[in-house]
Amino acid sequence: MGLQRTHFPLGSQSLRANLIPRITKLLSSQRFSAIYPKYALGLNTTGPELGLGISNASESRYQAWTLGRDLSIHLHSYLAEFIQPQTWSDLAFITVAKGPGSFVGTRIGVVTARTLAQQLNIPLFAVSNLEILAWSKVPLSAGSGTRIAVEMPARSGEVFAAIYQVTPSEEITPVLPETTLTLEKWQHLLNQQPTTVVRVKDKLLTKVACQILLEVADQYWQRGDRPTWSEVLPFYG
User: Model pTM?
Assistant: First the structure.
């Protein structure tokens, strides 16, 4: 399989120079098979833990490791070990948590996922942590029409925020896409909502977030979405 170098306008030259050769080596070092059914790989590096998940119609597994500032050093070795016994050619698509979260961690995860998706020529889904939180509350919502307001702490006096609405098919659609707001403006928006609002401030365990990340991406895959690596950008707020 021919592997190409990739240019990303996502961060420092040193970050790209460090990550991309490692990913190329990672892909080159593993045999490629034609095992079916295909799998999906989920990657979450937005917090202090590295979260990985892999699943298909019949099996799934998720794992988290606390790496902190050592993420860029160990990410590729953990990926190589975690994906076994599957191989890279077993993947139908990749999904990555695009933030908000740690600036450096989010950037590393998005660069890694974009590089893998481009080299493997498979779709890449990016899902925000706000959307992941919203999806976690859909089974507990009041049903179709319910709005789920999600917030995460940002800079002093601000929040990362988004509002989603539950559809008749028990999916969610954004009413207010992810953004950064002052607490005062956020509260004003909440007071203006015309229907039942489920307000979410929770923080999910990394393994749970990885599971939801893969479930959300699979919903998009099943409806026919096929986003390319070049469409994926991090959300820093």
Answer: 0.83
